[in-house]
Design a protein that fits this description.
homodimer, 387 residues, alpha/beta, Aspartate Aminotransferase, domain 1, Aspartate Aminotransferase, domain 2, 2 domains, seven-stranded mixed beta sheet, two-stranded parallel sheet, 42% helix
Chain lengths: 387, 387
């Protein structure tokens, strides 16, 4: 893997980035605070900012999706999208080879999580999840006054399935089990044999929410399987959630959905708001499903970005969790807050607090060029003793 | 008001419509079913379809809003819109001269209603509303197993405030009172003195949801006032909801919000999904707030459309409810289902069942040209004995 020299000119960087004016302009929106200019590395001065803190897709969306979204706004941005929702539902169901009635649409998959939380609150459920994991469901459950049990992950950030199972079995009534798989912020997967074995032997009162936001990045791993297989086998106690925010690069379009058996989907759907998809979102998602080339490119770029970062982490001997996602959780050599501040001063948005241990950072995999730049920055940080 | 001759040519109609190719193309999306071609009026054959069933804004949105939405998707459709939500929140708060913390954003105002329903369910509330009214809240409340009391409107479709008040006073605990003002599907308003008197003398346990989706069309009426005045006076038991779907022509963008005191807003916010606004929606709404000319045009066109329709209804001696909205509830001379079928056969989407009395139709006020066409169709229906 080609690595960049230590101090290329700004012009060289822009060439290497290959991002063009539009992306550079985005930096002006970032409201960067350069609190301590002395901390800025020479090659990062006035450089484009890197947004690596929300697991977004720096590639953007498929050009076809973009065109479709613009067209949809122009043509029927003033109309309620009910007809196109119905069409899209059939198309997406077809894509997954399920019935349209099995789909639960959400304004982002977060709304699907919100709906499941509200459904569970009606049953006075207990929610069990690993810690750390994606925090939205916990927030929703707490607002619903649900009992939330968090089970810490193990030494290698692996989910402690045995402990979660035990805690679940100790509850009465509905137990909502939140499994983000691959998990966020750790990036690792659960071996499907372990997970399927758990679910297949769990009582029907244990409802498994499998948050598969990062499914697309993990499917190449032979030890990974989507919970859709279980739903297809008729399991009523499994709901999976998916999103167009990650591999499809549409975080700003707010398009998510859940899949369950018809019986279970019908129970959860009333708890999502009606009319929850936008004209632009539906059009973009529909075009994205058709653009297999972009999908492939999106996965491949992510793979390339991962290898660039992994090479750097290996070179710097910074431990990391093997990832099947578009981000990596890795060890840093300084407290996270200091690291985040130094990164912020150098225009890199990264370093949100994600784990109890203060020496781990989650970085999103931007484009390959962005990851070269991030790697460069990490190496310069090492020189400064910041990592 | 100029009225059209009985059977102008299709060419004349298209000229009169002045809609251009884009809008005509929309007809191909409408999946019209011409079940009985003999019922089609000569001048409606192959004419553009009229969508007058969802109280949308046929004008579309402000051209500036459209440009802003397209730009937003292109520039950061792949990013979570958290930064722009924060900016927009400040701008919208400024627009209403309230604090940003008083705003409750929703994916359309329906999500605000959904959040209030969930909040109320936690308190085991009773919901009271007039019948007929906009049905979303009732649906949400029923999914939450809330007790729903509907109080029929009077002879002239006026809300029976005295009866609603009496029912509310008979409840214990939280009472959610749903007042769509102006009301949908009736189009009429409540005199603000009556409403303010009720609210000012109600116990704090009576939470008034004032759905003001049609606020912009009603504010010229001296007997109308927004509940915002009460919130500004510090009333914690009032929430108003507003939308960009109507006067701003953005039904497909899914942008709505509620306003309450900070105390009340903080109670309701946790029940909306996070990240619930899209990049395109935020950009369009922000531009729309700045485009005072389009806003004025939107109101004026609606006024003109209303006068065209009212003239026709008067001419045909079809009773109607005086409207402060972008629709009119009017008497028809045949059962609604027959009327809707005849309209559907003639490419006019109208005639959804809205009231218990089968002889009333709610028609949305399209553009003035659309209303000429609709008036023309109504008159032809009269000739046929269909209305």
């Amino acid at each position: 893997m080609k690595t960049l020299g230590m101090q290329p000119s700004r012009r060289q960087f822009i060439q290497q980035l290959g991002l063009g004016v539009a992306w550079l302009g985005l930096a002006t929106n970032a409201s960067l605070v350069f609190a301590n200019r002395t901390a800025i590395l020479p090659f990062r001065q006035n450089a484009a900012s890197l947004w690596l803190h929300y697991n977004e897709n720096s590639l953007g969306m498929s050009p076809n999706a973009l065109s479709a979204a613009k067209y949809a706004i122009e043509r029927y941005g003033n109309r309620y999208p009910s007809a196109s929702v119905d069409e899209f539902k059939v198309k997406l169901a077809d894509h997954h080879q399920v019935k349209p009635e099995q789909l639960i649409f959400g304004n982002g998959s977060t709304e699907v999580l919100r709906a499941i939380a509200t459904y569970s609150a009606q049953q006075n459920a207990t929610m069990i999840e690993p810690s750390p994991t994606f925090g939205a469901l916990k927030g929703y459950c707490k607002s619903e006054n649900l009992n939330v049990i968090q089970v810490p992950v193990g030494q290698n950030f692996e989910m402690n399935i045995a402990a979660m199972k035990k805690r679940a079995m100790a509850q009465t009534g509905l137990v909502l089990i939140n499994i983000c798989n691959p998990n966020n912020p750790t990036g690792n997967i659960i071996d499907f044999t372990t997970m399927f074995d758990w679910i297949n032997n769990a009582p029907e009162t244990h409802l498994f929410l499998l948050d598969e936001a990062y499914f697309d990045y993990a499917q190449a791993n032979a030890r990974y399987k989507s919970g859709l297989d279980l739903i297809n086998q008729g399991k009523d106690n499994v709901v999976i959630s998916r999103t167009f925010s990650k591999v499809h690069g549409m975080a700003g379009m707010r398009m998510g959905y859940g899949i369950a058996t018809v019986k279970t989907a019908n129970k959860i759907k009333p708890f999502a708001a009606g009319f929850n998809l936008s004209a632009a979102g539906i059009a973009a998602a529909s075009a994205a499903l058709d653009d297999k080339l972009f999908y492939k490119k999106s996965i491949e770029y992510n793979q390339l970005s991962k290898s660039i970062l992994v090479d750097t982490l290996n070179e710097l001997e910074l431990e990391y969790v093997p990832s099947d996602t578009n981000f990596i959780l890795h060890r840093i050599g300084s407290p996270l807050a200091d690291y985040a501040e130094h990164m912020q001063q150098n225009g890199v948005r990264v370093g949100r607090k994600m784990t109890l241990d203060d020496r781990w950072n989650r970085v999103s995999l931007g484009t390959p060029d962005e990851m070269k730049m991030f790697s460069q920055t990490l190496k310069a940080f090492r020189q400064k003793g910041w990592v």
